[in-house]
Amino acid sequence: MPKINLPIVNSTSHFFPLILNAMISIFILWLCAGEIKQEDVGLKPEMAFFSSNNPRRTPKITYLHIYECQQFSMGIFCLPPSGVIPLHNHPGMTVFSKLLFGTMHIKSYDWVVDLPPHMPTIVKPSSETEASDMRLAKVKVDADFNAPCDPSILYPAEGNMHWFTAVTACAVLDVLGPPYSDPDGRHCTYYQNFPFSSYSVDGLSIPEEERTAYEWLQEKEKPENLKVVVKMYSGPKIVEN
Ligand SMILES: [Fe+2]
């Protein structure tokens, strides 16, 4: 089983500036974490984390916290079938997600930044309400993933907004570098998505055959039905201090 030895990860500090050292540390971490498999973390679909008591309610999600420092955080999301981690962002962060078992639908987006300047990509839905602006995004990934599969990685300016829907019970190892931090401006924002055709905007034209790849995203409060129970990971040791 791969073990992530943090002192070795940090041993480059004598030779590289701090920011480069952080990037190298995270890169090494991801290489190690990419090797972690279901059997290494002692999780099975039959465990209570992966069943929902009430089929009429949105399934509760469990987050098993493994480790956090200034440079990264690591944990495992356990989702029962139909469990959803709704559309959210990772400002200024790089995120590595590895499906350990199960089938997961992943949808991710990029902000649209490459249209000509006369085409608006941010619009106000109504001048009479306090509703947030709608911002144009392009779908980057919209597919089912079956474990074992390659990890998916999002970057500060690539695929930074995503949502997960569990097709079957699933476990996902998540590594965030750096972690969320409100004081440092890395706050998690949730979004509602709308089809491109929901709004017609003067001056904005997208070829008809490409329109399904575009959607409007609007900030919203954290969904009330999102229930994430945080527990400490207690399986086999995977991070050595
Ligand atoms: Fe995420």
TrEMBL record:
Q: According to its UniProt record, which cofactors does this protein need?
A: Fe(2+)
Q: Which residues cross the membrane?
A: 15-33
Its EC number is 1.13.11.20
Listed under GO biological process in this entry are: detection of hypoxia
The record's listing under InterPro entries reads: PCO/ADO (IPR012864), RmlC-like_jellyroll (IPR014710), RmlC_Cupin_sf (IPR011051)
Mention any Pfam family matching this sequence: PCO_ADO
Query: Does the keyword Disulfide bond feature in the UniProt annotation?
Result: no
Q: Which reaction does it catalyse?
A: L-cysteine + O2 = 3-sulfino-L-alanine + H(+)
Q: Provide the alphabetized UniProt keywords.
A: Iron, Membrane, Metal-binding, Oxidoreductase, Transmembrane, Transmembrane helix
Is the keyword Iron assigned to this protein?
A: yes
**Class in the EC hierarchy, top level:** oxidoreductase
Q: Give one GO term, molecular function aspect.
A: cysteine dioxygenase activity
Its family remark reads:
Belongs to the cysteine dioxygenase family.
Name this polypeptide is given: cysteine dioxygenase
Organism, scientific name:
Glycine soja (Wild soybean)
Per the UniProt record, the lineage of the source organism begins with: Eukaryota, Viridiplantae, Streptophyta, Embryophyta, Tracheophyta
